[in-house]
Amino acid sequence: MPDIVIETERLILRKIEESDAALQYELLNTPAVMECLGGVKEFHEIEAKHAKSMSWFAREGFGFMMLIEKSTGELVGHCGMKRVDNPLAPNVGDHEIGWLVREDRWRHGYANESMRAVINWAFDSIGVPYLVAITSERNEASWRFMEKLGMERRKDLDFDDPAYDPRDNPAIQYSLSREQWETK
């Protein structure tokens, strides 16, 4: 079993391995899941993202992880934390959280369960001062979930990304400080 980073009641969050690209390509890389994330990716793009995450863990002790459902052992998504690395963002280097859950597991509470664990991990184990999350106004489910987590909209951090569909611009950001999380 690859390195387990976090365990919740129903999920194992483990480090990404090279062999996970095929699994993600098959289970998470669907038109519905990827609709507001730049669309379905080529296999080599997923491999590159996985390589980045593995290097983040090696260099900084955090990155994105695979979400494994304990009851079935199946991949149900991925989530974690990375540095904002889009050169068009005004806050490159900030700690950014994100998540993705496969379509047949939507509305099972996996995003909520995993992201609450990731936020606790980010603040308590990694010691970050605040977190951001990036989405688009069109992705209402995403920003509503950010608000549910206690995050606040930061219009000062909006930016345009030509790699995304014009309907998903500008990219919008939410933030959450340790203090906001602790008093939520």
Automatic annotation (TrEMBL):
GO molecular function, one term: acyltransferase activity, transferring groups other than amino-acyl groups
Database matches in Gene3D superfamilies: 3.40.630.30
Domain of life per record: Bacteria
Domain N-acetyltransferase span(s) in chain numbering: 11-179
InterPro entries given in the database record: Acyl_CoA_acyltransferase (IPR016181), GNAT_dom (IPR000182), N-acetyltransferase (IPR051531)
PANTHER family noted in UniProt: GNAT FAMILY, PUTATIVE (AFU_ORTHOLOGUE AFUA_3G00765)-RELATED-RELATED, N-ACETYLTRANSFERASE DOMAIN-CONTAINING PROTEIN
Entry protein name: GNAT family N-acetyltransferase
